[in-house]
Amino acid sequence: MPRLHIALQEGFAGDPVSINVDGHETYRKDSVRTRTQIGLADSIETTHDKGSATIEIHARDSAATIMPTLDGDLFLAVSLSPDGRIVHRSSTEPFRYM
Prior knowledge:
single chain; 4-stranded mixed beta sheet; 4-stranded antiparallel beta sheet
């Protein structure tokens, strides 16, 4: 089974965050804060069958639905833009933090 790794990165300032994968809550915290030294607030990792996934992210007053297809491990970086929008990027390689 492929790994699905979700990293909460930039822009979180004590915000409530929840993440659902295929309709199941996999993450909920009331106060997520980015560690500016490394650009990471928190992360989760789960496994998922190959094929499509539906990832719903709620943070601050924003929500986003991301629908990737998993053929192998997927690393998803999620940030909050300065105007509060959820933005993301994905990679087949792990993100590096100093």
